[in-house]
Write a structure and sequence with these properties.
This protein is an alpha+beta fold. It has a domain at 46-143. The protein is built from six helices and three strands. It has helices spanning 17-22, 49-62, 71-82, 102-110, 115-124, 134-143, and strands at residues 24-29, 35-41, 84-88. Strands 1-2-3 form a three-stranded antiparallel beta sheet. The protein is globular.
Length: 145
């Protein structure tokens, strides 16, 4: 491969790195407008070096523990361990707010009654547009993208 420096123009950032790493918060509703809480999560983007390093570390540290899990359980586990930052509005069986923990989040997202939450969170966590800064959003609106 050539070592020539072509001095390419640097593109506008695809997303706000702080938002991608710190997370954004979105409310989750089903088709009947049932509320499933507010969830805070980061961006899953393999172009982000931090994401690549964290995934490699996750694979080394958790490989043995995740053996025997279903594919869905593994996806939930990766999501909670690497991208989910917290929740608000999740209630326990007595109607009291449940504090966030990774263990509770995995149980909730793997429960068949709440799978709809994971079905929405997973694609949102891959949606770069949700993590863009305002200048990129404005340009998209101008161009109709």
């Amino acid at each position: 491969m050539s070592k020539t420096n072509f001095n390419f123009a640097k593109p506008v950032a695809r997303y706000d790195m702080a938002r991608a790493n710190d997370g954004i918060t979105k409310a989750i509703y089903d088709e009947n407008k049932t509320y499933y809480g507010h969830w805070t999560f980061g961006l899953q983007d393999d172009a982000n070096p931090r994401v690549r390093v964290n995934k490699q570390k996750y694979n080394r540290v958790h490989a043995e523990r995740t053996e025997g899990m279903t594919e869905l359980e593994k996806l939930v586990d990766v999501f909670v361990e690497l991208y989910l930052k917290g929740w608000d509005g999740i209630l326990d069986g007595d109607g009291k707010k449940m504090p966030y923990s990774k263990e509770a989040a995995k149980a909730y997202l793997n429960h068949e009654d709440f799978y709809i939450v994971f079905e929405q969170l997973w694609p949102m966590s891959h949606n770069v547009k949700l993590f863009q800064n305002e200048s990129v959003k404005s340009k998209d609106e101008e161009t109709g993208n």
